[in-house]
Structures are given as structure tokens and as C-alpha cells.
Design brief:
Length: 123
Amino acid sequence: MPRKQLRRIVLASGTYRWRVTHRHTPPRCTELLSAFLDGHPRAPLRILFTEGDEVGYDYIPRSGFVVDHRTPLVSANLHEPGTVRALIERGLAAGWRPAEQPRPFVVDDGWAMLRIDASSRLR
């Protein structure tokens, strides 16, 4: 199976490469947003959105689209550059330092990252 091509996004903090993948880890599915700062591929930001009832009525209806049905409802399309920009910025705010720390920065609960500011959209 061919690897998904990396997309490019330019932010004030640098140029990043990113992609969205889907994992099947029975009994759950996970959407994974991976991003890294150009020149630092060994220090990626990995944000996981795992479906399951332990975090509310969260589910993944189609590739890249994540929905948290708790009140207020929050959703995001991980294939949209505006969403990716916001999540990269939130990763940086949470302590991701790709140029300084050459190791992955994993956010196991992407749902919490979506809810940082549920009153505004991710774009």
C-alpha cells in the first residue's frame, strides 16, 4: 500500500509537513494527524482521535472528519489546512518543540485539544 503523501503548510513559526491517516486497532478506530517542522522529521506532532464511549459519544464517520457529540458539539475536518494550522499551534502551545526536542510529541486525547476553545471554530 502506498504511503500517503505529505502536505505542506506555512505558519509564522515555520514550514510544516503533515498528513492524516486512519488506524484500525480493534475494537476501535483512530484518526491520526501527524505533522513535523521541515528539517525535523524525527520530532513529529501526533494527535490521536480514538473513537469510544469512554470519552463521550465520539466517533469517526469518515476519514479525517472527527466529531465529539458531547455538549457543545465540536467537529473538525483534519484534511482542511485551517484545522491543521490550529492544531499545530495548539501543539506548540502545549509544549511541542520540534527544533529543540528530537522526539515525537504525542497527544493521546485529540478530543481534549478540539475542546480547548469550543466556542470558536478551528479555522
